[in-house]
Amino acid sequence: MVDYDVIVIGGGASGMMCAIQSAKRGLKVLILEHNEKLGKKLYITGKGRCNLTNDSSVENHLNNIVTNNKFMYSALNAFSAQDTIDFFSKYVKLKTERGNRVFPFSDKSSDIIKALTKYLDEFKVDVKLNSDVLDVSNNNGIFYIRCSNNIKYTTYNVVIATGGVSYPGTGSTGFGYKIAKKFSHTVVEPKGALVPIKVNEDISSLNGLSLKNVRLSVKIEKTNFSEFGEMMFTYNSLTGPIALTISSKINKFDIKNLPISIDFKPALSIEELTNKFIREFKENAKRELKTYLYSVLPRLFVEYLFDKNYVINKKISEINREERTKLINLIKKFDFSIKSLDNIETGIITSGGVDTREINSKTCESKLVSGLYFVGEVLDVDALTGGYNLQVAWSTGFLAGNSIKVR
Description:
Layout: E1 4-9, H1 13-24, E2 29-32, E3 53-54, H2 58-63, E4 65-67, H3 73-78, H4 81-89, E5 94-97, E6 101-104, H5 109-122, E7 126-128, E8 133-139, E9 142-147, E10 152-160, H6 175-182, E11 187-193, E12 197-199, E13 210-220, E14 223-233, E15 237-239, H7 241-250, E16 259-263, H8 270-283, H9 289-293, H10 299-307, H11 321-332, E17 334-341, E18 349-354, E19 372-374, E20 382-383, H12 388-401
Parallel strand pairs: 1-2, 1-10, 2-7, 10-19
Antiparallel strand pairs: 3-6, 4-20, 5-6, 8-9, 9-10, 11-18, 12-15, 12-17, 13-14, 13-16, 14-15, 16-17
Helix pairs in contact: 1-5, 1-12, 8-11
């Protein structure tokens, strides 16, 4: 006789959802969480506000999944964004903001965790905190789980919901990959996703500068990766929404020393910007170029242009056609050189993980070992910002929880 029908290793978003759905079906379920509380990474998502999903179609979610979106088709259809909203609305008042991002009305991620805890209590899920799993083995269809302090459990089904390796402070140690490999699964090399992009140039003077309505672009071979919106400079990196999005799209390429370009005026063509400058140069002929540029570009960036000798200050009336063309080209395509992506630990999400080709997309069960399931970030699935990654967690957790075989 085993101790539990299902043991979920990992008490994050996908693990809790899986446990709730399993217990809802009458199964005896245990969550083993090595942190001192459940949902530790959920506390910091959305800057502590918890962007729990994106109120949009399954098709839109699939389009915002960067890696292995086809794998997610069954899971998202089984538990969609609307299902997520309905699920949490029982205990939490929600709101939808720009870009269809859904948050708790209180702006407190703790409310989402409280809701999950209520569901766990409602369906009598056992939870063991501060439980370090040391080993998982299988003998004749029964899994044996050994924890610290020589505590052991047995079960018919094990769900690996241990997350990736980003944000190690929340307990993401990569332990799930170790278990996957033990059971002969392939683990695609983990890489940082949604991470800052480091550049070779000294941009320390731009630290903290935010840009709006700009276009950031990287061309790799014949593909142009380009995003419009907001970004920000740190002392050595490009970050913010569009930089993070591009990082997820280029992290599988050799990007060292590739140019990454900012178009400060994407709404204007070079011809339109030229006509604007010709007109305004005539109107401001007596002004200094630097003073004029303060009305065109952010002040910090204007200072950077002059400090780094991209542009030399002089009266606008003294600027010739060649110098004007050079300035326009800098505004339309200002290049930095990529050094690398930032460390994987800084990634909002992990790209890479358990190879989805070895997982049944309709159940999240291993194709190699019966009764072994993988959900959430431990899988080689990652998405863009906007609530899409958490929806991957809810959907895979739900699918596995409703697919586990009853014995």
